[in-house]
């Protein structure tokens, strides 16, 4: 237990559990023979699955001691133990209660400190209800729970498994649960957290490990296979686990992780070393000589090696036989080579050189966009280079599972289709003007053929006979998109959309151009046209003798110079690699720019590129890609994927706007989607504004019907029925998902009607919004009351999910003018003679309707105030608004509540007020011991007298302490209540 207490965190205890044995010193002085001697106890062997000395137990309703005598002890639902060690905690909920309640309970238990001591050995938490299960790694007492890493288990084909019986037999069965703890958790020292693999990562790593274990090393079948896992799905962890499984099983002597770029190799080396166990070493290779020495080495520490494809390809048998001996030694070993980004550089000479030098090595490839028959390179596909597909997790799977975002692509026309079509028709008819074309019958026939969209499409396509049919854009010269008219339209589109798409420059964007000269020209134009935009440019800096040298060199000098001035740097052409790393770190908010969002002037808004950064670069802060460039197949998916990393509700999708050959590009995108969505294109592209606005109206109708069904006009309070509240929570969350998407696509609260056109010959449509911002904020206020318990809501067992960020919506902007005008009218009527009772009632009803904009507590004091107004007891002041009266009444009531608590419990009133003013939460209430200090100020005699009179019974002092703790905590967290009206339960 001393060792467990010392190690403390699940991260470090993962190594303890998987260390197989633990050393214990005998400390019983009566045992003269063994006293003081060290013995080694076997505690766990990851390889002894349902065999050897492994023992499995299930504990029902395990008891956990709380960290404080004041707090209650807790009782869990199920605990899975291996060799007496609690490693998996399962929290269960009944049918109809959201699984979120199970994981919220786990989070609460963790915050209360019950997963300490022996229970700090818990590696995996599982939250279950009969129809849904999520599992996640234990972040420990000091860690944070992150719902992005709460996973659903799935089958080999990535179909989610939620039925509890199937989960029990697959994920929580004895062999799988043992493997999960032993092989498929990762103690990541880089991030300082324990991680658990997703189901698709497990299937891929397992498939590679199995393939190696079945390899006939005497044969020549060296195509291991490839893994198709989409970008952003955690390929580095998967490849590491594959390598680790192979190394641990001793099925290979060397496992080499091959990168195609030095900077990616450095990043992967860092991640590999973070993932490795304490007794594992991941080797770097400074140069080819070091690589050769480590490949020849018999030292087990040199089993896992990270290197670049360039260094590896340098190992070849020279004509003079210089390296023959070394290569013979290396080839005597069983070598596995895992190639990352296998779509990128494996179709040239370097990989073939490696295969020639290492004919016995087994090759595996990882790619988010493997090369298929449709886009084969050098008559090869990823399959012909690496072998069969071992596992697939396509971009469509990733979007469905919310591991990556979908895309919102826009075809932006910089020229009108009609103008482009007419220019091509005249050129094909060999005419200078329309009049000239129509005057000649032959020219007229050609002209009308190209003007007819049913005869010649805007984009070319493959006909039914398999031959390519030219489209209008096929006849456009490249120079068409090098004109100032085109560039200025592109820049205007970026400028017009920047504020909305970037959330006022919170997010960053990439602008992909077709060539280095184009990139430089765009850089200069943007500097002039949008001077407030912080922009830079990145491309291959090498200077050759092919012409245009001076233009490129001048451009580089200008770009690097501007960057140095803006960000106070000293980069030069010689240090261009460091410049690239600085730009990448700035865009990704990585060291040394982790908190750069706090200093917006140091951020980079827009990065202009040609080819660089369109693959292999990840940043959740990039949400938009502008493209004045033609791409196809894997390059489209790779470029689009720069925008699809998860961020939060403000980034519901990645936005793409493309300008060059737009109709052809649209077809290219469709082909790429078909090829790389794994035959599941649904959900890859998000819905457009018209659809989203109609969904907003439809959901608002559902919410209106729900409140009307409960007899609540104007959304003035929450329904009493818990199931109705649960439905409202679900509907409002869904409403906000569509609202966030709509805002980015152009929705504004001050616009109530949206017209839409759908192309020539198709009818126009219109969407009229059914609610305004005021109504939305009223609904947001009701939603907050679900969370805070306002209006009789809340409670620990609320059977629906509350989303934290939605409770932070600023409802202070609700327009109170209407409510004030109704109040003034009510005042006037009361002072008039012979007023009709019906008129008074109607005015009062109108005033009550406006109460929906108040919280439940405010509504309570508004009614008290109105009663005082009607009875003549209210003191009226000229120029004072209705809300000011309500606030005044509320403040007076709050003062009375605090004074009563202070009087009944003898608690220090100043300390109580200070703590309530600090807006504390349950987690922060006792920061700096301030809540303990408040409780210490309680007069125990007064408190005992208060509770005994309230409950009409004698109560021991230890129970009085508990009651004081509970009452004061609730009073502070709920910002006060009338304590005489409360019924305090017996403990």
Percent strand equals 5-15%
Number of helices: 34
Shape: globular
The share of residues in helices is: 40-55%
* Side-by-side strand order of the widest sheet: 14-15-13-16-17-12-18
Largest sheet: 7 strands, parallel
What is the strand and helix layout of this fold?
Layout: H1 2-7, H2 10-17, E1 21-25, E2 38-42, E3 56-60, E4 63-64, E5 74-75, E6 78-82, E7 85-92, H3 99-111, E8 124-129, E9 132-137, H4 164-170, H5 174-182, E10 185-188, E11 193-196, H6 199-213, E12 223-229, H7 235-249, E13 254-259, H8 262-275, E14 282-283, H9 288-296, E15 304-308, H10 309-313, H11 324-331, E16 335-339, H12 349-357, E17 362-367, H13 382-386, E18 389-393, H14 395-400, E19 406-411, H15 417-428, H16 434-439, H17 441-451, E20 461-462, E21 468-469, H18 484-501, E22 508-513, H19 516-529, E23 535-538, H20 549-567, H21 576-588, E24 606-609, E25 622-628, H22 633-640, E26 653-658, H23 662-676, H24 689-709, H25 722-745, E27 753-756, E28 765-768, H26 773-788, H27 817-831, H28 837-849, H29 856-871, H30 882-905, H31 909-917, H32 930-936, H33 940-951, H34 957-973
Helix pairs in contact: 6-7, 15-17, 18-19, 19-20, 22-23, 24-25, 25-26, 27-28, 29-30, 33-34
